[in-house]
Design brief:
InterPro entries: DUF3000. By secondary structure, this protein is of the alpha+beta class. About 20% of the residues lie in helices and about 35% in strands. Strand 4 (about 90-100) and strand 5 (about 105-120) form a beta hairpin. Helix 4 runs antiparallel to helix 5. The relative contact order is 0.20.
Length: about 220
């Protein structure tokens, strides 16, 4: 089993769901069409919204991307931007090559990205990247998402602002980049696993638990 760089993708022409617009399904392979449909059938917790975003150009013959964002009570609107101003967001890109890419060892590759603001107490933990990677592995296992060739990076950063610039004097972020090859074309469980990781890094309480805000 080969573990590959999450940014490794074949360079070729592409047909993206976003670029083709209405009627695009007629031009898609049946497997890709079913995979895209399954991504939007994922069952997500109410604090997380999902929408279609534009996939990167020319990564694979066929591509589709969804954006997920933690929605707060004072936020509205259904647009899910590629880069969110919220404290936690992610994107999951489906790459499909009917010829089966050798580096993928399959025909369906998922490329994931998450960025989240972190509390300084959490961000200072040197094991945070290891814990975040464990969240991804556990979430894929919990949802029974079959996969191979998982690889990626987790980066924890601190930013310090000086002079006349807005924002908090110190800010901490976690960034995860990962990719894996899906076994099969039903990707519902993969999107659900990805949303679980986003919930973890956003600090959401376990489902069914109400978090009381201090006054």
């Amino acid at each position: 089993m080969r573990v590959m760089n999450p940014d490794t993708t074949p360079q070729t022409s592409t047909h993206s769901a976003d670029a083709l617009g209405e009627g695009a399904n007629e031009n898609w392979p049946a497997d890709f069409s079913k995979a895209v449909e399954s991504m939007h059938a994922a069952q997500l917790r109410p604090e997380i919204s999902l929408g279609t975003i534009r996939p990167p150009q020319r990564p694979a013959p066929f591509s589709h991307a969804v954006g997920l964002e933690v929605v707060h009570p004072n936020e509205d609107g259904d647009n899910i931007p590629v880069d969110s101003e919220g404290d936690a967001f992610g994107r999951l890109i489906l790459l499909h090559s009917p010829a089966a890419e050798e580096a993928w060892e399959g025909t369906m590759r998922l490329v994931a990205y998450i960025q989240a603001d972190m509390d300084d107490a959490v961000a200072s933990d040197p094991l945070l990247p290891d814990v975040a990677w464990q969240w991804l592995n556990e979430s894929l296992a919990e949802t029974s998402a079959g996969f191979t060739n998982l690889g990626g990076t987790v980066t924890s950063t601190a930013s310090v602002r000086f002079g006349e610039i807005g924002g908090p004097p110190r800010a901490y972020q976690l960034e995860m980049r990962a990719s894996w090859t899906a076994e099969g074309i039903d990707l519902k469980s993969h999107v659900e696993a990805f949303s679980k990781v986003l919930a973890h890094v956003a600090g959401l309480p376990p489902e069914g638990v109400t978090q009381l805000n201090a006054r």
